[in-house]
Every structure is written in structure tokens, then in C-alpha cells.
Here is the input.
Amino acid sequence: MTLTQQPVARASAPGMASPPQLPRRRLPGLFNAFSHAFLVVWAALVVLPLLWAVVSSFKTDAEIFDSPWRLPATPRWENWARAWNQADLGQFFLNSVIVVGCALVLTMLLGSMLAYALARYDFPGSRVVYYLFVGGMAFPVFLALVPLFFVVDQLGMIGTYQGLILVYTAYALPFTVFFLTGFFRSLPNEIAEAAFIDGASHEVAFFRVMLPMAKPGLISVAIFNFLGLWNQYLLPVVLNPNPDRQVLAQGLAALAVNQGYRSDWSAMFAGVVIAMLPVLVVYVVFQRHIQAGLTAGAIR
Amino acid sequence: MRHGKYRFLAWSVLPGLALYAVFVISPYAQAFYLALTDWRGVSARQKFIGLDNFARLAGDSLFWTALRHNAVMLLVVPLATIGIALFLASMLNLAGRGGRAAIQGVRGAKFYKIVYFFPQLLAVSIVAVLWQFVYTPNSGLLNGALNAVGLGSLTRPWLAVPSLALPAVMTVMVWGSVGFYVVLFSAAMQSIPRDVLEAAAMDGANRFVTFRRITLPLLWDTVQVAYVYLGILAMDGFALVQILTVGLNGGGPDNATEVLGLTLWRNAFVYGRFGYASAMGVAMFFLTLALAALTLRFTRRERIEY
Here is the structure.
């Protein structure tokens, strides 16, 4: 509708109101109110457990048992210190940063090189390689679990950083290669051609020309991989029995399962908040990128 | 130049491919062989026993219990998640009183989208720990809330009652998934041409009719993708069940929340029955495959171009 039509609609009889008002008019107002209430209710359902964990992390155990709703008399920061130091969450956090950081760099490096080679070069077996990676997305990880444990075991890498890093990278590659191959194919060819004419080698053309052009795709897939790897549970549970090397998601769960009922509730809450907070803060700051990055794979 | 091309290709393809072959392809291939052996982890004793593991699987009542629970989750979780997400997304994107001629979302739609997405960012294991607190009988959030609004008679030890434990687990799954699909469906709804919706409104179609006849058909591809993703989620459930539910390694009470992934993991890494666990993995693989094929077959519609 254009603006010039607006006064006409307004001047005419009520039955001729502008189109968007029409369906609302026919619906009972009750439904509208209910719908809006449901938006608020779902937001509350999402936020309340999180907020409650934050509040509880400042309470004493007695206050937690006394009433789940009341605010703490005084905020107990020492819960956080206890979780960080005595419950080893600091160590778990560090392990997560090391493992996920290295795996992410390795995945992006290997994945983008593979994807570029598959998208831009025709070589014997290139289609086979591509379908090997894409096919890998169709298999449930549970199928590989038992043999994977023994592969890692034979390499002497059970419970080590390098073992987890290599396995994380290997399992992140299929989606990364699939996504980035499509992305590199969609980039124009002329600029790389121009670089070759100017005497650039294949390496220079890739790192100096194509990789910077692929930045939006790289960011999307990096965000996707970061969250996937940071939140990984199954692989570390199987491959990483060493308590000193546990990652955050795994260590926190082990704490909750082993001693949640017996001991320190307030520190457990603090631990949950410590584990949630960094990701949520990063998300609120970069939310547009992150939503786009996470849904990009599904929409394509 | 030609020489340089193959050198470049070699070092850009081979490292990634080698890593992938060692840690992904070879385990998948080995699993199919191990499933036919009685291997228990001691490398000397690895006898080929044909399909015996699968025969045993057919008579394993725990396996069937787990399969039934995954089937229930497969029916309930995607339907509930997609239903809630579609409703929220259409409210956020198409239901606003925009005035003028535009069909748009309600006020604060952006804020809601940010908030709804929160659970997607949390590790499943952390969600599980959090909800263990929520379900705790005496000091938990859920019973506390029921008491606070005068519904104290409804309080239950949610995870300790066999008939309630699986619904409790599925609730957490839906809670954790809806936000992602709200955002996904929102993106798809934004790409529906406005004039189609406005034309329908002009013709007097109410909001339900518009949704059923226009919005949903145009979103069908995305809904299909969502169904497959949620199906994969419902076939898993391992982390949630292992951490959240009662019992030695989760799955309780009375195996009321046992799922396939948990049965497999326990057989392999608690009992050391590696051959048998591999057979379960193979069974899971074919189930997933059949499921994906069925989903794509039965949700196929004519693609609408616009």
C-alpha cells in the first residue's frame, strides 16, 4: 500500500479499514491477549531458571533449602571462589579454553583449505573426497564410539589435550567442509584469476585473496563450531576419563552427579553460573552474528 | 604452475583427509566389523560370531525399553517444539499492530528473540544440571513455584516417579530447543513476500486461515529441516538422561528414562561388552537412516516457488 491511499481508507466507513486491521477485527480480543501473554510466559519460562541459578549462587545452603524464592540476606561471593578453586572449575575452564581454542583453529585451517581445494580445483578423486565428508554428517556418533575409543587409546591419547583436540577437529570437519565448499563456490572467480596473472602462487591466492573474501562464511561456521565444541559432552566423557583434563561441561556434570546431593549446593549453583555466563555475555554482545551463524547451516 | 597446483592441493587436502580417515572413517568402518564379534576389549579374544549379537539384541528387553522411549521422544519432542516455535515465531513476525499497511511483528519482538535463544547456547550437560535443581523435590524451583501459587497439592518428586520422569526429560528437551526454531522460522517468515499476506488479509482471510493456507505451506521446507534435526536430537538424549535422571548411570527410576545411547554407552564403557555395543550402534545407524528416509518421504510436498 502506498501512502497516498491511506487517507482514503481512513475517510471511508469502518468496514473499509486498511487491510492489516481486517483480520484483527474478526478475531476475539481474548485470543490476542492470550497470544501476547504466551510470549511473556515463554520468556519467563526461559529466564526464570537461569535467573534463579544466579540468585541461588549468592545464597547459603540453608537459605537455598529454606525457600527457593527468597533473596539472599547478604550476597555470598565466597560461593563463587569455592566453586572456582576447590571444585576445580577454574581448571576445567582452562581445559575447555585450551581444547576448544586449538580445535577451532585447526578445524578452520584444515576445513577452509579442504573446502577451497574441493570448490575451486578439479583433481582426480575430488568428488569422492567431497562425498566422504558430506556423508560423514549422516552417521550417528554413537556408531563410532567404541572403535574411536580404541583408536585414540592405541595412539596413547586417552585423557590428553591433543587427543581431544584431534577428535574434536575430525568430527567438526564434515559440516565445515560442506558449508565452506558451498561458500567458496559462490565467490566470483575473477579476482583469483587476476592474482594468478599477476604472478601469485596458489598459496598466496588462497591466503591473501580468497580467504579474506570468504570472511562472512568463515565467521558463521566458526561461531557454529565454537558453540558445538564448547558444549560437547559425549566425546569427552568417553575419551577423557582423566579428572585433571576434564572440560567444563563434563566436569560440572560429574560434580553434580557425584556430590550434588551430599555437599555444597551453593557452590554448585555458582558453578552453573560460571559455566553459563561467558557464553551468554558473548551472545548478548554479538547476538545478530550468532543467530545468523547458527541458523545459516539449516537454511541453506 | 602445474607443479605448483599439485603441491598446493597435496598440502591443503591431505592433512585434513588423513585426520578424518583416522578418527572418523576408520571407526565407522570398524564398527560394522566389531558388531559381528564377541570382543570384550582384550585384543587377543576377538572371535567372529556372525549375527549372534543382533539375535541377542532382539531378545534384550532393556534395548526394547530404550527403543520405545526414543520412539516416544521422537513423536512428542519434534511436534511440541515445532508447534510452540511456529506459534511464537508467527506472533513475533506477523501479528503486530503495525498500523500503516505493513504486516510486522509485535512490539519487543527483537528482545523476545534474544531471550528465547538463551537455552540454545548452554551445553546440554549444564542444562541438565540446572534442571536437576529445578526438579529437586523440596528446594527446587518447580515445587517452590507450585507452593507459592497455592498449588502445593501438585508438587511431586518429578524425577523419582516412573510415569513422570520421561515427560520431565522431554520437557527439558523442548525447553532447550524451542528458541533455536523460533529464530529459524523467523528468518524463513521474513522472506515471505509481504504482499501475499496482505492480499490474503484484504480478501478477508483471518489469521488462522492465513497461517494454514499461506504461511505454513511457504515454510514447509524449513519445517521439514527442523523435523529432521529434532528427530536426531530425540534419537540421542544421552547427556540429558545420564546427568538429569536418577539411577547409577541415569536412566531411572526403574529404567523409565532409558535411551538407546545410554544403553550402548553402558554396555561398552561400564560392562566392557564392546562387540555387543557396536551391534547396538549399527542398529541405531539403520534406525536413523530409516527414520530420515521416512521423514523425507512423508513430508514431501510440492515445492512452492515465490
Notes: Chain B has a mean pLDDT of 86.
